[in-house]
Each structure stands twice: as C-alpha cells, then as structure tokens.
Amino acid sequence: MLLFSCPNCGPRNETEFHYGGQAHVPYPEHPEELSDRQWAEYLFYRQNTKGVFAERWVHTAGCRQWFNMLRDTVSYDIKAVYRMGERPPAAFEQPRTFTTTRAPENTAPENTAPENAAPEGAKP
C-alpha cells in the first residue's frame, strides 16, 4: 500500500485518493475552431510515459481537493506533490507536446498500380 501526501491533509493511505489522469493538459484557446479530429486528440490522446509522470489526483475521502503529483510509473516512487495551478518543481519540468503521427495516405509500394486502375493496354 502507498502513502500519499495530500497538500492539505498530510500523509494518507492511497485508498483515500482517486486518479484523475495526466496533469497540465491545457484547454484549447479557441475550442469552436477545432475539427472533430482535433477534439478527439485533445480529449483522448495522452502521454504514456515510462518514468516520472505528472498526474492529477483527488482526495475523495478527505478534503476533496484536486492536486498534482509527480510519480515514477516504473517504481511508484512519489517525487513531488503540489497544488493545482502551481508549476512542478523545476527539476522535473518537461516540455509537454501533444503531436500525433499519421500513416501516409498511400501505403502501396511504388511499383504497384492502385486497385481500381485498368491494366496497361486495356480500353476504357
């Protein structure tokens, strides 16, 4: 069992807390201009970091306040706990980029014709 240190209540058993996802995900500046694809990326695409990761937690059985935690996802070591709105300790700040890589539109080898292409010499 882990011992979490709530910034408001102090050390408590991990069963008093609930995970809230990745921390520091900024809300889009102009949400009305986003495409469906961009909304999906904002809502569902998150980093899956192996190592130190910034997470949001809520103390559901205590003060019911949200806070951020830097936790090592491999060893479960808690590196830092800080309140919402505060920046992570400088030693752990990492640039957060949310880019996606997309497969090329045409993945067929160069020497093959498209499926709907007529064979050479065929009349239309």
Looking at how many chains there are and whether they match, the oligomeric state comes to: single chain
Radius of gyration: 23 Å
Let me know the average pLDDT: 82
**Unreliable sequence segments:** 97-104
Helix/strand order? EEEHEEE
Number of discrete helical segments: 1
**What is the spatial order of strands in the main beta sheet?**
3-4-5-6
Describe this structure as you would to a colleague.
This protein has 124 residues and is mainly β. 7% of the residues lie in helices and 28% in strands. The protein is built from one helix and six strands. The chain has one helix at 36-44, and strands at residues 3-6, 10-13, 17-22, 52-59, 66-72, 78-83. The strands form two sheets. The chain has a four-stranded antiparallel sheet, with no helix packed on it. It starts with a strand and ends in a 41-residue tail after the last strand. Residues 97-104 have low confidence and may be disordered.
